[in-house]
Amino acid sequence: MVLPNLNIVPFISIDNMMKLVLNVGIDRFLSELADMLEEDFRRWEQFDKTPRIASHSMEGVIELMPTSDGQLYGFKYVNGHPKNTKQGRQTVTAFGVLSDVGNGYPMLISEMTILTALRTAATSALAAKYLARKNARSMAIIGNGAQSEFQARAFKAIMGVDHLRLYDVDMEASLKCQRNLQGSGFTITICESAEEAVEGADIITTVTADKQYATILTDNMVGPGVHINAVGGDCPGKTELHRDILLRSGIFVEYPPQTRIEGEIQQLPEDYPVTELWEVIAGSKPGREGDGQITLFDSVGFAIEDFSALRYVRSKLASTGFFDELDLLADPDEPKDLFGMLLRCEAKAAQVL
Amino acid sequence: MVLPNLNIVPFISIDNMMKLVLNVGIDRFLSELADMLEEDFRRWEQFDKTPRIASHSMEGVIELMPTSDGQLYGFKYVNGHPKNTKQGRQTVTAFGVLSDVGNGYPMLISEMTILTALRTAATSALAAKYLARKNARSMAIIGNGAQSEFQARAFKAIMGVDHLRLYDVDMEASLKCQRNLQGSGFTITICESAEEAVEGADIITTVTADKQYATILTDNMVGPGVHINAVGGDCPGKTELHRDILLRSGIFVEYPPQTRIEGEIQQLPEDYPVTELWEVIAGSKPGREGDGQITLFDSVGFAIEDFSALRYVRSKLASTGFFDELDLLADPDEPKDLFGMLLRCEAKAAQVL
User: Fold this and answer.
1) Which of B62, B75, B326 sits opposite A64 (nearest CB)?
2) How far apart are the first and last CA of chain A?
3) Is B162 a catalytic residue?
4) Closest residue, chain A, to B150 (C-alpha)
5) DSSP conformation letters of B179-244
6) Superfamily of domain B132-301
7) Which of A58, A126, A313, A349 has the highest CB neighbour number within 10 Å of its CB?
8) Distance from CA of A104 to the nearest CA of B (A)
9) pLDDT, tens digit, for every residue of B286-299?
10) How many CB pairs under 8 A join A and B?
11) Do residues A302 and A254 lie in contact, with contact meaning Cβ atoms separated by under 8 Å?
12) What is the dihedral sign for C-alpha B192, B194, B195, B198?
């Protein structure tokens, strides 16, 4: 039996990912992606889970993030190199693969630099939907780099956030963020300090990029009832919040074994109590306990979120057609005859000559 | 500073890999690949090493195999699904990535179904160069599937083996192997049993594909001085040799923590003495101890071998041109402005309309 095109794997390039996102619409893309994330968080227990496999160097880190639900297998390759922007490169680039567990064949290869920004933002907003006060409409964003507009758009699409208070050590970054959000229905205030940015904000998003311990938020800056969306602290030695804030907050995480190594809670004892976000989404644990509680989503990004994102873009391929075909897999006429395929290629080339 | 083509990653498709191999020449490719493997085995201690990350299912396994030498980072995705051939698919397919540790950017994506067959064969022949008797010229190959011709060609190119004794439970496979090796300078005998195949052979290669404990070789079949190249037993629960053979042999392995889980030595106590192949190649441990010793290369395949193979094909790209350009990485005009890239794509599309 010969199946057609067994050699082909659909591939979503940067260009096609942009076209796909724009064709679906940024807000709808973020909302539908959040729905798929919610679906996978609800069935969290069905997944194989393992902390990402990291290869650290002086300059940064390269990670592989695999997971499987028994039917599909997905993994993401992602790097984090803070000094890259000085050479015109991205701090974070990524690509991912979705495969069929039944036969091990890749079914999709996709760029994930843009897709990771979208899934991180959609996950943040999904968490806030469960953890922030229901009437939260204003958000401070501290760190106005590559992630900031995605966060803003996701919080608007999923939470209705329409007031932004932006702060970055580099004001150019804030101005770029403001410019990119023009016409999206936000009231935007550019602030000169983190202190000013958090004033009156219902939600505080921290999304800075330095690979080091930093104190973006000090204890006195965080008032009662605030939801903190801590996105930037995502590897060992990189945190953004003062420890005292953690001690005053209800802490929600994706996958404790990974977050204890990489998240804000690396500052706390190993057995410090945290709640897994999936438990809140599945309804087995409470989320916010009253309007006065400080809630903290200590986000580091987990493989299942990338899996959901790959699953989502795959669901859009047939209807949009934004993909190329990669000749990635060997498909000899007779499966056991891999060497014969090589010989026939040689014979064919000889014929052409 | 804007660098040109930061979005592009060279990609070697199945078709281009075949053209690359044929352009270089199969024998020269295998020899040069063995040279690069030898170079990397010599500097084995410089590499980050970890057992592969496996995701097992009823039907098979999907694995990620990362490693790094501090300058380059490589990983391979590979599946193993023995029932695949019944559906016209490959038991094993693979692809790999080589990256720059300094900035985390992928530098090469390559098919590795064909490349893995070549690297496995080159590694086997390299090991035999150090472990088999110097005058070894005849080899039994038990299991005449997709790997068999690659093994034969590598042993000829690197060791001068020119007598083959083929056996497979499916004689069609042996006939296919014989056909594919026609005109390559081998004297070939097709045998009706494994016992017949090993008669008088200097080297015995076992390369069967069943995912189970099997006894391809029993103790009485292996005479003094033979080198056994055990390639097929490569995951937990899959072995090919009777335990008594192991007890009579000098055992050489790639990376003990992985081989003890996956190789023939999973049948032996955890502390049973084995020699690492790199130590023999680097000259710090002896290889074969006299013409009467039975040597066994218990091969399961290790990430560094894939790293060498990716490094080798990458060295051939510029001179041969057999690659495509994948638009895989985001390259906004301003590195921190990923969202702006999306907006400009939208503006450009609007202009076209």
Assistant:
1) B75
2) 32
3) no
4) A339
5) HHTTTSS-EEEE-SSHHHHHTT-SEEEE----SSEEEEE-GGG--TT-EEEE-S--BTTBEEE-HH
6) NAD(P)-binding Rossmann-like Domain (3.40.50.720)
7) A313
8) 5
9) 999 999 999 999 99
10) 254
11) yes
12) positive
B-chain CB neighbours of A79 within 8 Å are 99, 103-105
> What value, to the nearest 5°, has the Cα angle with vertex A349 and ends A345 and A351?
115
The answer to whether the CB of B227 falls within 8 A of the CB of B204 is yes
The verdict on a CB contact (< 8 Å) between B95 and A180 is no
Q: Among partner residues B18, B70, B349, which is closest to A345 by beta-carbon distance?
A: B18
Domain boundaries, chain B: 8-114+305-351, 132-301
Rg of chain A over CA atoms, in angstroms? 22
> Rounded distance, CA A222 to CA B132, Å?
71
- Reply yes or no on domain A8-114+305-351 having CATH 3.40.50.261: no
Are both B8-114+305-351 and B132-301 of the same fold? no
Q: How many CB atoms lie within 10 A of CB A290?
A: 9
Q: Is the CB of residue A161 less than 8 Å from the CB of residue A139?
A: yes
**A259 closest CA partner among A248, A245, A243, A275:** A275
Q: Which residue do the tokens 């099997």 mark?
A: B214
Q: Name the pTM for this structure.
A: 0.92
Give the closest-approach CA distance of B46 to chain A in angstroms: 13
Q: Do B327 and A13 touch (CB under 8 A)?
A: yes
pLDDT digits (tens, 9 = 90+) for A10-46: 999 999 999 999 999 999 999 999 999 999 999 999 9
Residues in Cβ contact with B228 at an 8 Å cutoff, skipping those fewer than 6 apart = B203, B204, B205, B206, B217, B222, B241, B245, B249, B294, B295, B296, B297
Q: What is the pLDDT of residue B143?
A: 94
Which residues of chain B are within 8 Å of residue A81 when distances are taken between CB atoms? 102-104
- B149 contact residues in A (CB cutoff 8 A): 339-340
Cα–Cα distance measured from residue A286 to residue B6, given in angstroms and rounded to the nearest whole number: 46
* Confidence at residue B165, expressed as pLDDT on a 0 to 100 scale: 98
Per the CB < 8 Å rule, is A57 touching B342?
no
Residue pLDDT, tens place only, A154-211:
999 999 999 999 999 999 999 999 999 999 999 999 999 999 999 999 999 999 866 5
Question: Other CB atoms closer than 10 Å to residue B273's CB: what's the count?
Answer: 8
List the catalytic residue out of A40, A168, A202, A234: A234
Residues of B in contact with A14 (CB under 8 A): 7, 327-331
Residue in A60, A99, A149 closest to B104 by CB: A60
- The CA distance from A152 to A205, in Å, is 9
